[in-house]
Design a protein that fits this description.
single chain, about 210 residues, alpha/beta, Rossmann fold, 7-stranded mixed beta sheet, 4-stranded antiparallel beta sheet, 6 helices, about 30% strand, globular
Length: about 210
C-alpha cells in the first residue's frame, strides 16, 4: 500500500510569553494528502500559515502531534536532510533551516535527494514579462513529477484568486490557528470566515 505523501496528525503548536503561562497563540491541524496535487493556502496575516509550513518542513518543533512525509516523521530526520523531503520557500524564495539539539547521527537519513513536498510562502507574482506563466508552469511541472505543492497567497488583487482557481486542486484556509480544508472554490467561499477575509474580491471574481 502506498503511503500518503503528507500526514499532519493532531498537530499542535503553542507559544507562551512565560514557560508555564497560558498560550498566547495556538495552531491546530489534522489532515492528510495521499497523492500529488497543488494545494492553495490562504488566511489572514498572523493566522498561522507560516508556522504550519515550518512544522511541515521540520524547521519548527510541535507542542504535540507529528508530521509524516512519505511515512517518515520529519522531526526524526537529520536537520540537514529534511529539505530533501519537504522544502519551504519563504516569500523571496529563501529556504529556512533550523538546528536540532539531538545529534544528527542518532536521526534517520532522508530516503530521497529531491523534495517530495514544496511549500511556497507568498511567492511574489508579477504581471510583467510572463512571470506568472513561468511560475504556474513550474508548479505544474512539480505536480507532474509526483510532488505535492502548496501555494500560499495573501490575496489583495482579483488575479491572485484567479491564479489559485486555475492551478489548485484543493484548498486550506487558516484562521486564528484553526486549519480547515475545502475541495473546490465554491465550498471554500461557502465558509463565512473566508468570505469575510476575501471581502470584495469574492464578488469581483469568485462569487
Amino acid at each position: 500500500m502506498t503511503r500518503p505523501l503528507l500526514e499532519v496528525r493532531e498537530l499542535v503548536k503553542e507559544y507562551r510569553q512565560r514557560r508555564f503561562g497560558p498560550p498566547t497563540f495556538r495552531l491546530a491541524a489534522d489532515f492528510r494528502i495521499d497523492e500529488p496535487s497543488i494545494v492553495g493556502v490562504m488566511g489572514p496575516n498572523g493566522s498561522g500559515k507560516t508556522t504550519l509550513f515550518e512544522l511541515i518542513t521540520g524547521s519548527n518543533r510541535p507542542t504535540a502531534g507529528e508530521v509524516l512525509c512519505a511515512g517518515l516523521d520529519i522531526h526524526d530526520v537529520r536537520p540537514a536532510e529534511r529539505d530533501r523531503l519537504a522544502i519551504h520557500y519563504h516569500q523571496a524564495y529563501q529556504v529556512r533551516h533550523f538546528r536540532s539539539l539531538k545529534p544528527s547521527f542518532l536521526m534517520r537519513r532522508a530516503p530521497t535527494d529531491y523534495p517530495l513536498v514544496h511549500l511556497f510562502d507568498e511567492p511574489q507574482f508579477s504581471l510583467q514579462d510572463g512571470y506568472i506563466g513561468f511560475m504556474l508552469n513550474f508548479f505544474r511541472k512539480l505536480r507532474a513529477e509526483e510532488r505535492l505543492v502548496f501555494v500560499c497567497v495573501h490575496p489583495n488583487e482579483p488575479y491572485h484568486l484567479e491564479i489559485l482557481r486555475e492551478i489548485c486542486e484543493r484548498y486550506i484556509f487558516v484562521f486564528q490557528g484553526t486549519v480547515s480544508e475545502a475541495p473546490d472554490v465554491p465550498r471554500l467561499i461557502a465558509d463565512p470566515r473566508v468570505r469575510g477575509y476575501l471581502g470584495h474580491l469574492v464578488e469581483a471574481r469568485v462569487g
